[in-house]
Amino acid sequence: MAVHKVVGIETEFGILHRCNGDSNPVAASSMIINAYVNGFLCQRVSWDFEDEQPGADARGFNEFDALAPEIETHLVNAVLANGARYYVDHAHPELSTPECSDSRQCVVYDRAAEEILIRSMQAANSLLPDGEELVIHKNNSDGKGNSYGCHENYLLDRDVPFGRVVTHILPFFVTRQIFCGAGKMGVEVPMNDGSPPPFGDRPFQVSQRADFFEEEVGLETTLKRPIVNTRDEPHADTRKYRRLHVIIGDANMSELQTYLKLGTTSLVLAMIDDDIVPEPLTPLVPVAALRQVSFDTALSGLIELVDGRRMRAIEVQWEYLDLARKYARSHGLDAVGGDDIGNDILDRWEAVLTGLESDPMGLATQLDWVAKLRLYEAFAERHGLDWDDPKLAALDLQYHDLRPSKSLSRRVGLERITTDDEVDEAVSVPPPTTRAYFRGRCLDKFGDEIVAANWDSMVFDIGTDPLRRVPMLEPLRGTRAHVGSLLDECRDAAELLRRLGN
Amino acid sequence: MAEREQMRRSAPRETESPAPQDTSSEGATELKAELDDLLDEIDDVLETNAEEFVKNYVQKGGE
To answer: Is A355 exposed, middle or buried (0-12, 13-18, 19+ CB in 10 A)?
Structure first.
């Protein structure tokens, strides 16, 4: 049986410091996070780097030319009571959601991440002199060739051959952008063969990120980005699990898209775990196909496959959906969170593909890229603008602006999946159904006695030597069902550790 | 399923016949009004100096 698809999202946010003179994005990012940590949290617990091995490669070897990411341990790095990690990564504020047990729950925590950034921005700006402002965008590029990521994480079965994962997730990733893309004006990387970018009617792409991928499979995330990233660092029992670290996605403003992205990918990965896979749909040149699909807003282009077939991106998606329907009947949907959510994912996946086939512009309240295209066309028409007018490029940035007074995406009528109340709660309360519950509750209740925390352990200082590390190698242990009443009853960390038998 | 199979076999949109105008005109008018309201609002909140805003928006690469 497939491993339960525990999921999470890490988002690097764009940051702008509006001031007279030069600004430093690392300092600005630190200011954002410190303003939140100092303004909203009673105590501050740091991230523990003891177990991090971002250079490990899922293919079982480390390439000489592969650069493992550097961990910047000197920068601000906090663990939040909702189980999230909030830190400065390179020159961006980054927030990793807590581990979630299904895709819908993860959308709630993704929205909570936005809310945390909004509150951080407001707190930081209240400290800045008049005339200065920090502005946060949830996007993936500055329009000038600099990109930053929105990564997804999925728990996989260690016994599944990684080659099978690569074979079947690659075509899925090349084509899922038709309903996962956040849309973008223009192009940021020249075409490989030096030809002009193959735009449709408009200089507009489906995906923010497709410009930036150069390899099919690999370890890097900042140079020569691969469609399938091989970082093998499960943050869990390495004998049982892998984590698929997905770097190809866009940061979506549309909740429905985040939900579909996580839900459909979880389903396909569960199918791969159980070896329910199609005849390989591998594109002949995957990196070129990725870009071709992004330029093809008419969704009519044909992708050439290794086996000689030629298929539209949406036809590749129909193949995966049809097989997922069969998988649901033969294997059930427990791996993605049960029948209710699994069937909802299948139905919405089918609905969005049907909409894309018949009337893509009809999805303007569902998909970011369609919402943008409709808005920009109407705006250009009203003001008589050419498509290279900077006003349209400004709209393309401002769509992702998190300031409630400026955000365009919050004005275009996007469908909601979550409610304001559950997002507000998720800012400070962990998901009850994963180990994030234990992490978050401990931070909330015993924060003064916690020295450090990371994904798979917590370190307590209860006044006796040495420090006590509690391992959390099972992502689905430490839930409210397991430890809720224990945490309610314990008066201090010493009692908790004693009763945990540590 | 049968309906979807048929949909999938059809070529992309240009071969489909356009929707009859008269049945959707009411909905289209409503949509147009909504879009006009949205554009009014966007005119109000759009960054005042778009060119400078876009020029100054420079990020470091990440990940």
So the answer is: middle
Residue among A223, A391, A396 with most chain B CBs within 10 A, to mutate: A391
Q: How many CB atoms lie within 10 A of CB A188?
A: 18
A251 neighbors A235 (Cβ within 8 angstroms): no
Q: What gap in Å lies between CA A444 and CA A484, rounded to an integer?
A: 13
pLDDT at B8: 54
Structure tokens at A298: 């008419």
Q: What is the pLDDT of residues A191-232, one digit of tens each?
A: 988 999 999 889 999 999 999 999 999 998 888 999 999 998
* Residues A40 and A119 sit within 8 Å (Cβ to Cβ): yes
Confidence class for position A389, pLDDT limits 50, 70, 90: very high
For A247-298, write each residue's pLDDT tens digit: 999 999 999 999 999 999 999 999 999 999 999 999 999 999 999 999 999 9
**What residues of A act catalytically?**
89
Distances (CA, A) of A149 to A68, A241, A290, A457: 16, 24, 17, 26
The tokens describing A291, both together, are 């870009």
Scanning every residue of chain B, which has its alpha carbon at the shortest distance from the alpha carbon of A405?
Answer: B45
Q: How close, in Å, is residue B57 to chain A by CA atoms?
A: 6
* Token couple for A106: 């993860």
- The answer to whether residues A245 and A231 touch, using CB atoms and an 8 Å cutoff, is yes
Q: Where are the domains of chain A?
A: 7-424, 432-500
What digits encode the pLDDT tens for the residues A309-335?
999 999 999 999 999 999 999 999 999
Q: Of A12, A14, A86, give the one whose Cα is nearest residue A402.
A: A14
Instruction: State how far the Cα of A369 lies from the Cα of A209, in Å rounded to an integer.
Output: 12
Q: Tell me the shortest Cα–Cα distance from B49 to chain A, in angstroms.
A: 9
For residue A463, give Cα distances in angstroms to A44, A493, A496, A498. Answer: 18, 10, 14, 14
The string of pLDDT tens digits covering residues A418-453 is 999 999 999 999 999 999 999 999 999 999 999 989
Tokens at A159, concatenated = 């016994």
pLDDT digit string (tens) for B6-53?
A: 455 444 444 444 444 444 577 778 878 888 999 999 999 998 899 999
A7-424, CATH topology level: Creatine Kinase; Chain A, domain 2 (3.30.590)
B interface with A, Cβ–Cβ < 8 A, is 4, 7-8, 10-14, 16, 34-35, 38-39, 41-42, 45-47, 50-51, 53-63
Contact A207, A182 (CB under 8 A): yes
Q: Are strands A45-47 and A450-454 parallel, antiparallel or unpaired?
A: parallel
Instruction: Give me the sign of the Cα torsion angle A215, A221, A227, A231.
Output: positive
DSSP labels, B2-63:
HHHHHHHHS-SGGGSPPPPHHHHHHHHHHHHHHHHHHHHHHHHHS-SSHHHHHHH-------
Dist CA B63 CA B60 (whole Å):
10
- Distance between A81 CA and the closest CA of chain B, angstroms: 24
